[in-house]
Amino acid sequence: MTLSIFSAVLAGASVASAAYTLDGITHYPPVNNSFNSIDAVFAASSGTNGGYYNLSTVADIDYGAYNYCNMPHVRAREYEVPTGYSLQYLEIIHRHHKRTPYASNLFPYEDIPLYCDDTKMYFYAATKNGVDTSAIWWKDYMDADNPMMFVKNGFNSTCQFPQISFAGLEDSSQHGRDLWSVYGDKIHYLPKEFDPATMIVRVTNNQITSQVAGALIKGLYPDANDFTVYQQVASQDSLEPGYTCGPADDLRSAYEDTDAWFKHLNMSQDLFTALDTISGVDPTDSGWHSWFDHYFDNLSSRTCHQLPLPCNVTNATDCITQEQAEQVFRLGDYEYNYIFRQAQNATLYSATHYGAFLSELIAHLKGKISGTISTVYRHNIAHDGSIAPLLGALQIDYLRWPGMGSEVVFELWRKNNSHAYAVRVLYSGKPLSTQTPLGVLDMVDADEFIAYLEGLVGVDGSKVREFCTQ
Ligand SMILES: *[C@@H]1O[C@H](CO)[C@@H](O)[C@H](O)[C@H]1NC(C)=O
Ligand SMILES: *[C@@H]1O[C@H](CO)[C@@H](O)[C@H](O)[C@H]1NC(C)=O
Ligand SMILES: *[C@@H]1O[C@H](CO)[C@@H](O)[C@H](O)[C@H]1NC(C)=O
Ligand SMILES: *[C@@H]1O[C@H](CO)[C@@H](O)[C@H](O)[C@H]1NC(C)=O
Ligand SMILES: *[C@@H]1O[C@H](CO)[C@@H](O)[C@H](O)[C@H]1NC(C)=O
Ligand SMILES: *[C@@H]1O[C@H](CO)[C@@H](O)[C@H](O)[C@H]1NC(C)=O
Ligand SMILES: *[C@@H]1O[C@H](CO)[C@@H](O)[C@H](O)[C@H]1NC(C)=O
Ligand SMILES: *[C@@H]1O[C@H](CO)[C@@H](O)[C@H](O)[C@H]1NC(C)=O
Ligand SMILES: *[C@@H]1O[C@H](CO)[C@@H](O)[C@H](O)[C@H]1NC(C)=O
User: Fold this and answer.
1) What DSSP element (H or E) covers 244?
2) Cβ < 6 Å from ligand 8: which residues?
């Protein structure tokens, strides 16, 4: 990486939360709270900071609370319509819904079988004008006659790792119905029939985003069938993101090679030892011990599907406790906030690692304002690894791990009888509160919002391209 383009300037040194400018991008630190204070994370013996990790549906009165299993999103009951404006463009990005864990997050031995016989996963190719082909779905199974069955993640399962679960498909469908309750029934923005000329649904190359799309689209448009979703070439995909940005990776590696990061891992040694003993995970496996990602995914997949916490396969009374699981969940929030918000270079990292998507968003907003594009709706189905840097670049007040179904909505409104445009950004169904000078992104002047994004990625994304290819 060429360092000459950097000019590190410390600003506002007299205030506790000093802004920090690097490569022309100003980082505003997140607010302090119990999620991002490592001492608070360890001071608590239990608790989830008001978050839910074991159900999809919370009572209306608590809707909006953090729910890792099914994050709150826009729906009619809570949605507020700005007065004196009409909606011009709607772009949504959301994390897929709940699923089985990734194969890399499976323990070496599973103490319970995981069945997915209640869903069918389709994979097939049809020609446009050639031979007829049949729809094909995969029945996954493990065979006890296969001598290798218990060598690697061998346990009785009919799931793929990952796949969207039956309950995750129900959540996806409800998500589609909730979007219709607002943008269809409430404000009559979306057309009655899906219009492929002006509406785009986009997925990543990971099949779970297509699984969500199928259920979400049916929730939104029950008559939709044989549906086209868009997918960029994986190696340059801006949504996942799949493009390479080595200098961004270098920044992140550097701030994960600091005392600030090691301190929380050191404090976690007893917890790691207890978890390893029960799971059989190799204590020297760095994938499991350089952060809490794997244990978090394994445990939350269980609790979100009301499965018991794992027990030692040779000693069924030695099980991971609710308190240990909650400690893992608090540490997961701590790590996400650190990586995407708290580290001094987190904003530059987020803005470059996710800059290609931001550049596309700028183009969509500008194109609508200048009247050069006709798209009215764009829906992107993505990952926690997409939502986190997006919120990092927008400098959310503080970041908890973006849970299943986390949704960020970009609304472009035009003031009635005027050419003035405003942007509202909703996260978890509410205007997004940031630490930037834009503050709460609630009907912010569109030019100011675009200027903020261009400050991150340059006009036409030139800055992110130069940064990533230096
Ligand atoms: C947040 O906590 C850090 C570390 O304790 C401290 O340096 C910083 O001043 C605090 N920021 C605010 C805004 O209180
Ligand atoms: C669900 O989560 C809540 C909050 O963490 C906890 O109090 C409760 O015991 C959990 N229920 C089950 C069945 O695990
Ligand atoms: C603004 O325009 C929208 C769309 O044309 C309309 O529904 C709304 O009633 C208008 N509001 C006012 C206050 O004129
Ligand atoms: C998590 O790890 C345990 C221990 O091996 C394993 O049994 C389980 O299948 C993994 N995944 C889930 C969702 O529990
Ligand atoms: C595995 O599960 C299937 C049901 O999916 C069951 O028929 C079979 O007996 C189980 N095998 C073992 C070894 O437990
Ligand atoms: C942030 O990046 C700059 C430029 O690469 C570097 O000098 C500084 O050490 C980094 N800070 C951290 C905490 O990694
Ligand atoms: C973490 O533990 C290692 C090994 O015990 C030690 O060398 C290192 O100084 C510790 N780092 C911090 C930040 O506590
Ligand atoms: C399970 O418990 C036994 C006996 O306490 C222990 O030897 C073993 O290491 C534990 N872990 C696994 C994965 O079996
Ligand atoms: C099984 O686990 C329990 C609970 O941790 C422990 O008390 C007991 O000694 C273990 N049994 C063996 C045989 O290790």
Assistant:
1) none
2) 277, 280, 312-315, 318
